[in-house]
């Protein structure tokens, strides 16, 4: 579609050290559809973001339009064509 806008998913540079995951525009009407679209195109990324039960891993934080997603299993939040999704790995150290 000419001029169409799609939700954009961004990944941190730290995650990019482990798996090729450039920012990508994908279609979807919910956060679930958007993330699953990303995983279809990049299956290796799924294991870095989700655990074996399909939950967002404890060390991963997802933001939808600057709001943190606190639920690890419910991604049915609606997205708009202008939505921005950020996937970050929580880093710790001592």
Overview of the molecule:
The chain is of the alpha+beta class. It has one domain: Roll (Ubiquitin-like (UB roll)). It has three helices and five strands. It has helices at residues 13-16, 31-41, 43-49; strands spanning 8-11, 24-25, 60-64, 67-68, 84-89. The protein has a five-stranded mixed sheet. A hairpin with a 2-residue loop joins strand 3 and strand 4 (67-68). The protein is globular. The mean pLDDT is 89.
Strand order of the largest sheet: 2-1-5-3-4
The second-level CATH architecture is: Roll
User: Whole-Å distance between the termini?
Assistant: 49 Å
Binned, the helix content reads: 10-25%
Which fold name fills CATH's third level, the topology?
Answer: Ubiquitin-like (UB roll)
**What form results from the Cα inertia axes?**
globular
Number of helices: 3
What number is the mean pLDDT?
A: 89
CATH class label? Alpha Beta
CATH superfamily: Beta-grasp domain
**Biggest beta-sheet profile:** 5 strands, mixed
**Strand segment count:** 5
Number of domains: 1
Structural class: alpha+beta
Low-confidence stretches: none
Radius of gyration: 13 Å
N-to-C order of helices and strands: EHEHHEEE
């Amino acid at each position: 579609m000419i001029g169409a806008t799609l939700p954009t998913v961004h990944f941190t540079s730290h995650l990019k050290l482990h798996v090729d995951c450039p920012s990508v525009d994908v279609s979807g009407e919910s956060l679930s559809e958007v993330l699953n679209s990303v995983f279809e195109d990049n299956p290796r990324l799924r294991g870095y973001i989700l655990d074996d039960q399909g939950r967002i891993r404890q060390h991963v934080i997802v933001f939808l339009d600057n709001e943190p997603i606190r639920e690890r299993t419910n991604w049915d939040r609606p997205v708009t064509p202008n939505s921005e999704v950020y996937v970050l790995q929580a880093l710790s150290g001592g």
